[in-house]
Amino acid sequence: MARLTSRQDAYGAAVYDYFRGYGGFEIVERDDGHFAPSSGPRAYLAPFKDWPSHQRQAIRLARGRVLDVGCGAGRVALHLQQKGLDAVGIDISPLAIRVCRERGLRQARVMPIADVGPRLGTFDTIVMYGNGFGLLGSLRQARRLLRRFHGMTGPAGRIIAECNDPTLRRHRRAINPRALACHLACHRLNVRRGRMPGQLRIRIRYMNHVTPYFDYLLVSKRQMRQVLAGTGWRIDRLFDSEGSPFIAVLEKERQP
């Protein structure tokens, strides 16, 4: 996705309004007609004590110079900055980056994930929270970007990536059967299109703001291993949540 216009920055407008005390919400719309509210700006600005336990545990593994991809309102980068780490936050949303700066994040810049490259420098850790693994978009783009991340990180480079398991196997009984049927139908449609089952095409709405459609990749742990094949990364550790989100800590494969 290219740089957003002000009318397209639906996510940023919701975050900025919430930050200023006016409330805010997001509607996530899929290209198959499904739409639903997201967890919303409250989660994007949550202090560390209110993070889910799997996020609190995994972020302790961040070290050195850190790149926060899809930093949103800056909650992760600000936490790491307060811990003394050299944290850089990037996001495609101009208003989200404005919130980051107003909240005190020293290094925040507008940049889509596709533009991440060596000009940002070398990092020890790349963080992708808030289902940030999904920003990789598709199998092909994910592998291309993961190889790029491999070249941007040192020998002990690490990725801490959160994803949402689209198979919903662990908690299907707790899901509205109508919603479950809708999600599984979307997975079958994606397979017919030659895509991964959880490769969604979505856009974000807020009031009269709407983003362009973009690809958003949800994978299970098994599917993540498929995505990682040939990129130089492997899953070293996993942190589960009580629902479908999980965090994978990726380390570089050892060279023979």
Mean pLDDT: 92
Tell me the radius of gyration: 17 Å
Q: How much helicity do the residues have?
A: 25-40%
Unreliable residue runs: none
Number of domains: 1
Please give the CATH architecture: 3-Layer(aba) Sandwich
Q: Major beta sheet, specifics?
A: 7 strands, mixed
Elements, N to C (H/E)? HEEHHEHEHEEHEHEEEHEE
What is the tally of helical segments?
8
Considering the protein shown, what is the CATH homologous superfamily?
Answer: Vaccinia Virus protein VP39
Describe the structure.
With 256 residues, the protein is an alpha/beta fold. The chain has a single domain (50-200, 215-250), classed as Rossmann fold (3-Layer(aba) Sandwich). It is built from 8 helices and 12 strands. The protein has helices at 10-19, 41-44, 53-59, 75-82, 94-102, 139-152, 177-192, 221-228; strands at residues 27-30, 35-37, 65-69, 86-91, 108-110, 123-128, 153-164, 199-206, 209-210, 214-217, 233-240, 245-252. The strands form 2 sheets. A 7-stranded mixed β-sheet has the order 5-4-3-6-7-12-11, sandwiched between helices. Strands 1, 2, 8, 9 and 10 form a 5-stranded antiparallel β-sheet that branches. Strand 3, helix 4 and strand 4 form a beta-alpha-beta unit. Helix 1 (10-19) packs parallel to helix 5 (94-102). The model has no long low-confidence stretch (mean pLDDT 92).
